[in-house]
Write a structure and sequence with these properties.
Strand content of chain B: 5-15%
Structural class of chain B: alpha/beta
Number of helices of chain B: 18
Distance between the termini of chain B: 31 Å
Shape of chain A: elongated
CATH superfamily of the largest domain in chain A: Glutaredoxin
Shape of chain B: globular
Radius of gyration of chain A: 18 Å
Distance between the termini of chain A: 31 Å
Order of helices and strands of chain B: HHHHEHHEHEHEHHEEEHEEEHEHHHHHH
CATH class of the largest domain in chain A: Alpha Beta
Largest interface: A-B, 44 and 59 residues
Largest sheet of chain B: 5 strands, mixed
Oligomer: heterodimer
CATH topology of the largest domain in chain A: Glutaredoxin
Number of helices of chain A: 7
């Protein structure tokens, strides 16, 4: 597989980060960074990472199914993650989640037909003091109300139309 | 950046650089006594460093509260194996968002803490395990690491000594369980995050089968202040047996939620009423969780005279935990809270131990049934029994973390569970709708 020079540089750095013979340690970071570039963990990627760290594809497969952020199916261009865990729930996170489902007409881990948005109800993302919290891809949004979420989604939609 | 206004009650030790221009840069760090503690530690013997940490009464800030100096002393320094430093930045205990601000605003403080720990046990490499969702922190940390190499605080022959140390970031990929130390080490080695049986503890057999110091971000971040100003000065900030400050994350129904650095032993009532600005909308306090969702809940009555420290929380059968204080007002449905907390643990149970895997799932189902109005009176006892049978029967504390709050919800708010019986609607639904409007 060919990756961008930036990703190759990341891979090289990762493979040099662990003690000799421990290159398997790079597996999860490599999968994460590669997924960011190609959008999902493909079978080809599993095999590529396995060969680079000296594992079997099956060993990569068994690890990747454990981690909720690694996914074999593509997500929307903007993956909207809404936290409904305790601090967010107490401050309107559940209502925000329901609002988002209604607005985008999709549910948990579903992708909108145009591929622009996907939704996920996530567990605590570490923004409890600024709840309710939303993450779009890796960007945090704090104290999000249904109105603020509408604006955010509209902004992303129009940015994409340009 | 800062996400909330500081409070006048704060004692700013770990957060002393917060709000300074470009606080994450090495330039700002060096201008404000940065790496002074490391220079001092370089001239000390390892046992002297550990002794200073012991004097400070620093206890682990990740949740367990184990004395840090003692933990460091367990590392067999003379072992021929390499030693490692591992930073637990997999912050994911619901209610907790403090390590995020520590790394975001002052990453060099963490590097300096790692260097001090490395000197104490003769380690030459360290890994910062950052949860996958905190991707921007990996960029901040990588930048700080690069700056430290440029300025000679990482790499070989540091400050002209024969000491060398390399630091690396490592990303997680979404798993609460990886915040548990042995599961974190498995994950660091490229495996599923399932816990290891202990003993041996990571101090003896940790990362890559080698002796390892594994601490929370906040614990490492306290080390520079301890070495710089002395362990006694740090100890004096807190109370006997618990030195220094605690990063406290206030969330839920308070007027001024935020992350605040408060001295250990801070009164709970002042924390909620003054630091947190009291309960929203003039309502009354019903309950609060002192240190993340794993801690048994405390009622408003239990707040009287209570202080935020390890021993005071143990006396009321709860825990200081990670410092994630979740405040609930009088209109909060405890059954709903118990259900949401259990949904979390059932989702995050790694499945390795049957009592946890099955226990969390069945508790979730029982609590869901209750919340839906189909609960039976015998279920109240069953919930308590199931939870009690999980305690102490798993490799890692996740099973306990799920069971302990559940037991406290049922025991302290039994009448709320009873109010959901016989198909009656949740008595708090109406109140909640009013709040939302």
């Amino acid at each position: 597989m060919t990756f961008s020079p930036q990703l190759e540089a990341k891979f090289a750095k990762l493979l040099g980060s662990y003690p000799p013979g421990r290159q398997r340690s790079a597996m999860i970071p490599m999968l994460m960074f590669a997924q960011d570039e190609i959008g999902q963990v493909t079978q080809e990627l599993v095999e590529e990472v396995a060969s680079r760290i000296g594992c079997t594809p099956l060993q990569v497969e068994e690890v990747l199914t454990y981690y909720s952020m690694l996914h074999k199916k593509p997500l929307g261009k903007y993956h909207v993650q809404i936290c409904t865990n305790i601090s967010c729930m107490l401050t309107g996170g559940t209502e925000l989640w329901e609002h988002a489902c209604g607005k985008l007409h999709i549910g948990h881990r579903e992708v909108a037909p145009d591929g622009l948005f996907s939704l996920e109800e996530v567990e605590c993302i570490g923004a409890c003091s600024w709840a309710p919290a939303v993450q779009v891809n890796y960007d945090f949004h704090h104290q999000v109300t249904p109105e603020k979420l509408d604006q955010l989604l509209a902004g992303l939609r129009s940015a994409n139309a340009v | 950046m800062l996400y909330n206004e500081p409070s006048p009650h704060e004692v700013k030790i770990l957060t002393r650089r917060f709000g300074l221009p470009d606080s994450a840069s090495i330039k700002t760090y060096l201008k404000t006594d940065g790496y002074v503690a490391f220079e001092k530690a370089l001239k000390m013997k390892p046992e002297e460093i550990i002794a200073e940490v012991k004097v400070s009464n620093l206890r682990g800030r990740g949740g367990a509260g184990f004395p840090t100096g003692m933990k460091w002393s367990f590392v067999p320094r003379t072992s021929p194996k390499p030693k490692y430093i591992v930073v637990n930045a997999d912050e994911s205990e619901p209610g907790t968002c403090k390590d995020r601000v520590l790394i975001e605003n002052d990453p060099h403080q963490l590097i300096e803490g790692m260097l001090i720990a490395a000197l104490a046990v003769d380690a030459h490499a360290g890994y910062i395990y950052i949860r996958g969702e905190y991707r921007y922190l990996i960029d901040i940390m990588d930048k700080a690491i690069a700056e430290a190499y440029e300025h000679g605080y990482l790499g070989r022959n540091l400050l002209g000594s024969n000491f060398h140390f390399d630091a690396f970031t490592h990303t997680g990929a979404g798993a609460y369980e990886c915040g548990e130390e042995s599961a974190l080490l498995e994950s660091l080695e490229g495996k599923r995050g399932v816990p290891r049986i202990r003993p041996p503890f990571p101090a003896v057999v940790g990362a890559f089968q080698s002796p390892t110091i594994l601490n929370n971000v906040e614990t490492f971040c306290a080390a520079p202040a301890i070495l710089r100003d002395g362990g006694a000065a740090f100890a004096a900030l807190g109370i006997p047996k618990a030195g220094g400050t605690k990063m406290t994350c206030l969330s839920g129904h308070v007027n001024k939620p935020g992350v605040y650095e408060l001295p250990l032993g801070f009164p709970v009532k002042t924390m909620i009423e003054e630091v947190g600005g009291g309960i929203r909308n003039g309502r009354k306090l019903k309950a609060f969780v002192p240190g993340g969702s794993s801690c048994p809940v405390l009622t408003a009555a239990e707040c009287e005279g209570l202080t935020m420290d390890y021993d005071a929380m143990a006396r009321v059968k709860s825990m200081l935990g990670s410092g994630g204080v979740v405040v609930m007002d009088e209109d909060t449905c405890i059954v709903k809270v118990a259900l949401r907390v259990m949904r979390f643990y059932a989702h995050e149970s790694c499945g390795w131990c049957i009592p946890c895997r099955e226990g969390t799932t069945w508790l979730r189902k029982l609590l869901q049934r209750f919340h839906d109005g189909h609960g039976q009176r015998s279920d109240i006892v069953l919930i308590g029994d199931l939870a009690k049978n999980m305690l102490g029967r798993t490799f890692c504390p996740l099973g306990d973390a799920a069971a302990m709050p559940t037991i406290s919800f049922v025991e302290k708010f039994r009448e709320e569970f009873e109010a959901h019986l016989d198909g009656r609607p949740c008595p708090f639904e109406h109140a909640e709708q009013l709040v939302m409007q």
